[in-house]
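Components:
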Amino acid sequence: MAAWQNLVNFLGPDLTRIVVGLVGVLALVQVNALFLVWLERKVAAHIQLRIGPKEVGPFGILQTIVDGIKLVSKELITPRHVDRKLFMLAPIAVFLPVLVSFVVIPFSERLIIRDMNVGLLLIFAFSTFNVLAVLVGGWASNNKYSLLGAVRAVAQNVAYEIPLLLTVLSVVMWSNSLQMSEIVASQSKVWNVFWMPVAALIYLICATAETNRAPFDIPEAESELVAGFHTEYSGMRFALFFLAEYSNMLIVAAVATTLFFGGWKSFPGLGFLPVPGWIWFFAKTYVLIFVAMWVRWTFPRLRFDQLMNFCWKIMIPVALLHLIVYAGVIKIIN
Amino acid sequence: MANEFLEPITEQTFYLNMGPQHPSTHGVLRLFLKLDGEYIVEADPIIGYGHRGHEKMAESHLYEQFLPNTSRMDYLAGLILNHGYVAAVEKMVGIEVPPRAEYIRVICAELNRISSHLLWFGTYVMDLGGFTPFLYSFDDRENILDILDRVSGSRLTYSYCRFGGVARDVDDEFITATQQFVERLRSRWDDYHNLVTKNVIFIHRAKDVGVINRELAMRFGCTGPILRAAGVPYDVRKAEPYSVYSELDFEIPTGSKGDALDRYIVRLQEMEQSLRIIEQALERLPDGAIKAAVPHKVRPPRGDYYFAVESARGAVGFYIVSDGTSYPYRLKARVPSYGNLQVLTEVLPGTLVADTISILGSIDIVVPEVDR
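Structure:
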């Protein structure tokens, strides 16, 4: 306990909170990625009449750790024709903003590293960074498949950001704040998903597109572009892209939980159960992630132009209309 | 003078080598694509990476010795090519095949056709990004492989047919297993249709993509499901009936437009027709010998002979020139994938890279068959 006190005395309470929080976030990101990769393989296997990993550890749960050790021990291959600096920068650039977003996510009433008044804005600002890293990686690889993948990723993410933000706006208007805890508090009576189902649906579709998951995985479309923007990456650099993908999944699901599914609050009618808030939070988040996996292993991939048409001709008009209608409704209620 | 400061006009296009190592070129096909952004300006399929010289090999082999080569040309429909080659030699020598052997050949050939179509179904949907149907169809295909493994001793490259019959007789277990498989596959159609055929994303990816119309298909000598999807009801089994196909009742499914969706539907319907053929053949399976008496060494008389069968991909023909010895003087295999592949040069320009994969997948090529 003395060491703990020394740390607090030395850094001050705020800084201690941040240091401890970041260590916690790093641990969460790693454990989450290990768990999600295992879950993805198990879910895929059971959907496809297979068993999935089962040899390493109980139910194969340690399989991803072994895979991770293999990836770390592999040589980092830098092909001769790449732009070396950018090539090495991209995997780091894709991973770092992921950590920042966790700072403002309220895992429970008190379990939040920093409850900023612009929390939501921070998350979306940093999640956009992801696109830049993908573009840098695809461009620096100097590979035609990578370039095509990067170009697709930019067009897709920029397009899908618009309906995403438009739907989030209607939630913000209701809670009257960008602070994550305020948004959860505004859902104390009824979750947003029940009275804004369209917004929740649009958010989930756009979030799937933002995280480049099937059926919107065209930037890394395996059967077309080999591996898309990360074709030339191997070893731990590839693992960082992979890690970022699964952490992004956790972020978008966590944000969806906060915005639409009542955050750390219990399921309606189950409030009497002595379950801490963070368990409710993670339960909701992982259910959403499971749905994303379910979708991934069910649907084929859209074509690029169809994807863009879907965004510009359907998603954006619907999101705009939704925003206008709900702005009026909220005005009347208040 | 001012022109000197203008930027020189550069071509906006670039070249992309798709294959021979690419997850979706099914083997060792290389597509040389000229791209404008993601649009294809020119497409040139380059073949020959899987060339093993089967036709030349035939000239130095006895007629009997060449049989295993046939199933290595089209490894997905090996039994049908077996059948074609054996029937061609039987026609040369004039061997009467006992009816039981003919029925067994037809049953096994149709099972092989279904297994080829099932594999195509899985890989095509996988090319479009749907991974799960692939494993469903492989689960069904595994049954066929087990059945054929039991009767022929191999799972992929069969050498089951013999001059004048088949290598081994079938037993009751084969018959019950085949009947069970027919029922099983019938019960699976609903799953396939709900998962893929009615899927809106799948329809968007296949409808009006890669239209090969009647004229184009006939100009390039396309056969099989590609030609039938374009609305031409040409099937060697009906046009020039061989074996016992004339005694069996089945239909030739055709499409209308000739797009990828039509080809998909035609293949699914063909599987259903094959099931019908298998059912009827199992019912009528006569008793008797499974192999006619054939001279120890086959020596066909001088002359040239042609015999065609319908494989899973179209008309397979064996043109054999005999000089009266026990070695063929020349053997030419007419394979459907060759013509089906060349049509890509006409179909691909103007489409997107993603469509290339869809079109290539819907054509169902087997590259070792093209290269031979």
